[in-house]
Design goal:
The complex is a heterodimer of chains A (241) and B (303).
Chain A lengths: L2 H13 L1 H24 L3 H27 L2 H6 L3 H4 L5 H31 L5 H27 L3 H19 L1 H5 L2 H12 L14 H23 L9
Helix pairs in contact in A: 1-6, 2-3, 2-6, 3-6, 3-7, 3-8, 6-7, 6-11, 7-8, 7-10, 7-11, 10-11
Chain B lengths: L3 E10 L2 E11 L2 E6 L6 H8 L7 E6 L2 E2 L10 E4 L11 H11 L5 H11 L15 H13 L5 E5 L7 H16 L3 E6 L2 H7 L2 E6 L2 E6 L1 H7 L5 E7 L2 H11 L4 E4 L4 E5 L2 H14 L4 E6 L4 H10 L1
Parallel strand pairs in B: 3-8, 3-9, 6-7, 7-8
Antiparallel strand pairs in B: 1-2, 1-4, 4-5, 9-10, 11-13, 11-14, 12-13
The chains are: A mainly alpha (241), B alpha/beta (303).
Chain lengths: 241, 303
């Protein structure tokens, strides 16, 4: 890992408009949580439904999209990534340094608001909050890895990421069985289901077992990294004649 | 000392052949890569700088392949065409970040020295986003020089520079070339290349049209006659003598003297003094009229 690349990535991510979007989205989650509590009176089942569909299903992927792409896409788009690539640094070092920063920032901006929102909306002794913290952490790491790779591969990472987040994770994964098995949200929910055990009140359920979920998460994270590094090594940032 | 070698390099994008079987050696000194827009200069530079793989052929730096080999950037300094930099930073911080990325032990000092070399010390603590295009170009130059590379690659470096900045860059490149570094810059503007390039590589439509110092390039073009402007004590008599001698293709009389077209310039150059002596004519001025790069380029492009 290279500390200069990390510092530059952190500055880029935290210094732009993005940070306000992230704070705004986190605020939105908290606002929705407050509304939920006001409407449901703190019923944990309602909290679980809201968090799974809105928090984990829509908001989380979008925040990870902003972070995962924000740490590399703008530089590729305007060509300034050449200042990183024209250096005696391995491409895997560059990618890893950026990803570490992206993951750290993502974890802070997703896990913390999710835990707070769960507690605000209504929990059972912090059980839901703990379970969702694990889910969020796992999903966040996966999403950031995937979106980072998409940002390196495509010149339209935001559109692709949004389509994926809204269409795939957000709606199709809600009711199409086949899609659910291939949904990051389902993989990340598997540990939560286990943690909440037989708590039938909160209907937290995953379509995959923990083993499958974790294996798929690890596989996707590693594959995304490999794909991103390979593409980075072949990136031509010079404008053609 | 570092030498870039391209051996039978071609690059195609689908059906479009951007570079077609180019072989060239770029050594110490200043080399100009000249050609019209679309000739393949940027593609060649991308391959030389390790950002694009040749479809066939090899590109090496002192024998080591340049593609997928980030360690070459220790020896190569790149001035990219991209406008954008890390705009929010000051010039000092930006160049210093580049120095640190190179792993330089005294990054801050190296950055300061590089900025001084490009004459930007006056704005060292200003944000890059506030700079004019020419100033940005100079900061890009500083990032390319901060690690003292033995090879410098520049893609249209004079773009957007005012005459004063241009002269400064010309001096800088000349100095770097004199220091023994390998400096290669591309341009489609002839005056820029003519001024400082010791060697010129001309590319037209992906092909290497010519290579060498521009005078020797000119000499290779035996198909096109050389042109001389001659002033003498008796232009008419000299004109008649040259025509009678037969070593020139055409002679025309102008208000200032003679203009002679000679495809066999070797023979003509020997004949001229002989004729002048024989006819007792004094030669006042003999100037090759088209030794400029302009004429070479125009000729090559139209070939």
């Amino acid at each position: 890992m290279n500390t200069v690349v990390m510092r530059l990535a952190a500055q880029a991510l935290l210094g732009r408009r993005r940070i306000w979007l992230l704070i705004g989205l986190a605020g939105l989650l908290l606002a929705v949580a407050a509304l939920t509590r006001w409407g449901s009176g703190g019923n944990p089942a309602t909290t679980a439904t809201m968090m799974m569909n809105f928090g984990l299903g829509i908001l989380l992927p979008i925040m990870c999209l902003l972070i995962g792409t924000g740490v590399i896409a703008p530089e590729i788009e305007d060509g300034s990534v050449v200042y990183l690539l024209a250096k005696p640094l391995r491409r895997s070092t560059i990618a890893l340094s950026k990803l570490v920063v992206a993951h750290l920032i993502a974890l802070i901006f997703t896990v913390v608001p999710v835990v707070l929102a769960t507690l605000i909306a209504g929990d059972v002794g912090g059980e839901l909050a703990r379970a969702f913290a694990v889910t969020t952490a796992l999903a966040s790491v996966t999403y950031v890895s995937v979106f980072f790779a998409i940002a390196v591969l495509s010149s339209n990472p935001t559109i692709i990421g949004l389509l994926y987040a809204v269409l795939w994770e957000g709606s199709l994964a809600g009711y199409v069985p086949g899609v659910r098995t291939l949904s990051v949200r389902q993989w990340a929910l598997a540990p939560a289901e286990a943690m909440l055990g037989g708590n039938a009140v909160v209907n937290v359920h995953s379509d995959v077992s923990i083993a499958v979920g974790i294996i798929l998460i690890v596989a996707v994270v590693l594959a995304s990294f490999a794909v991103a590094v390979r593409r980075l090594a072949r990136l031509n940032v010079r404008v053609a004649d | 000392m570092s030498t870039l070698e391209l051996t039978s390099v071609s690059r195609w994008f689908g059906n479009v052949v951007a570079v077609n079987d180019v072989t060239m050696t770029i050594g110490p000194g200043v080399t100009g890569l000249l050609g019209p827009n679309g000739a393949g200069k940027s593609t060649l530079l991308a391959m030389m700088s390790g950002f694009l793989a040749p479809s066939s052929g090899t590109v090496t730096l002192d024998g080591k392949a340049v593609w997928r080999n980030p360690s070459i950037y220790r020896s190569i300094g790149l001035v990219p065409e991209a406008e954008a930099m890390f705009d929010a930073m000051t010039a000092r911080d930006f160049v210093e970040a580049n120095a640190r990325l190179h792993g330089l032990p005294h990054a801050r000092e190296a950055a300061r020295a590089a900025i001084e070399e490009v004459d930007m010390t006056f704005a060292i603590d200003r944000r890059v986003s506030t700079f004019s295009k020419g100033m940005k170009q100079r900061i890009k130059m500083a990032t390319a020089l901060v690690h003292s590379p033995s090879v410098l690659l520049l893609d249209e470096p004079f773009n957007g520079m005012d005459p004063r900045q241009r002269m400064h860059l010309l001096d800088l490149l000349q100095r770097l070339g004199d220091e023994g570094r390998t400096v290669l810059f591309s341009s489609h503007i002839l005056e820029e290349v003519e001024d400082i390039a010791g060697t010129i590589e001309v590319v037209v439509a992906g092909r290497q049209a010519a290579s060498g110092d521009f005078r020797s390039i000119r000499r290779l073009m035996t198909e096109r006659p050389h042109q001389y402007a001659i002033a003498s004590s008796d232009n008419r008599a000299l004109a008649a003598a040259i025509v009678a001698d037969g070593t020139a293709d055409a002679v025309s009389l102008t208000a200032d003297g003679l203009v002679v077209h000679a495809s066999n310039f070797g023979a003509f150059v020997h004949a001229l003094p002989r004729l002048a002596i024989a006819k007792d004519i004094e030669l006042l001025d003999v100037t090759p009229a088209d030794e400029s790069l302009e004429s070479v380029f125009t000729y090559l492009v139209s070939r």
